[in-house]
Amino acid sequence: MIDLEAIKAQRGNKPVPPGTYEESLAAMEQALEEDAPPSPEHIKINNRLVAWEAYLGIAKVKSFPTQLHVGLNDVCNARCAFCQYAPERSTANMIKADDLRRAKWLKYVRSFFPNAGLSEPLIHPEIEEIFEIVRDNAPHINMHLTTNVSLVSDRLLPVLVSNLNLMIISLNAARKETYEFLMPPLKWDRILRNLERIQEEKARQGRAHPELQAGYVLNKHNLDELPELPALLKSIGFTGCRIIELKVPEPIKSRELLTKDDVASHDKAHALKKFEEFESECRIHNIRLTQPLPAF
């Protein structure tokens, strides 16, 4: 028997979820029994049950995850100077399309992220089929993808645009020479052209999505060009970006990585000045910061 009043006292000012736990559990049990075609109501039912299970501290849950993060593979085609990915560490293990085809419960999940670890998801040999399977099983799910966008092919392009809600692009530079130093062997011109192709395909399909946001691992090599980033992003259809402070990677045998000497915070006054210029340019070009700037 759940002592709700005692739990309320423990939770303090934390809001009580709507309805009751018993109602939320019954709604889930009924939905599972009926096994109706996917609808937004399945996501709402699951969200309510998740909220109650979290509020009550229930360990053995009856809900499904609200967000599903899946490591489709552990292979990457970039050798970023700030990332300790190394091909010799890859196992070649991957999620198969058939694994997701069986996951009919995806209709209860709010968001799907085919990213985990240090991999590039678009390298997966079944990636087009995977996106379409997830969309078939869960037509109301939000699909978010983090990618370096180097592997966008003519075949993959319409699949990405028709299925994704958000793409976070690992950009990490506003200039060609910096990009190709930080993210070898990827080529700046190819990346920009692929981003243009995404915008062209969105226009062809008449879709506002996927929204494009940039990821930018801040270090001393890309700090000075940070104020140039918003204008670049605006010109290729981005709406937002997040600036992440370099976390110095552990050394690996196969190549040289950035070290503590490459962090952007050695000259804090200079870094803060660049932040001010960057924020001003973001306002001018209507680029949204999706998380606070690093605090030095």
From TrEMBL:
GO terms for molecular function: 4 iron, 4 sulfur cluster binding; lyase activity; metal ion binding. SUPFAM superfamilies: Radical SAM enzymes (SSF102114). PROSITE patterns: RADICAL_SAM. Its cofactor is [4Fe-4S] cluster. Coiled coil: none annotated. It holds the Pfam family Radical_SAM. Residues 62-288 form the Radical SAM core domain. Keywords: 4Fe-4S, Iron, Iron-sulfur, Lyase, Metal-binding, Nitrogen fixation, S-adenosyl-L-methionine. It comes from the Bacteria. InterPro entries: Aldolase_TIM, rSAM, rSAM_sf. Pathway: Cofactor biosynthesis; Fe-Mo cofactor biosynthesis. Belongs to the radical SAM superfamily. NifB family. This is Radical SAM core domain-containing protein. It comes from Ascidiaceihabitans donghaensis.
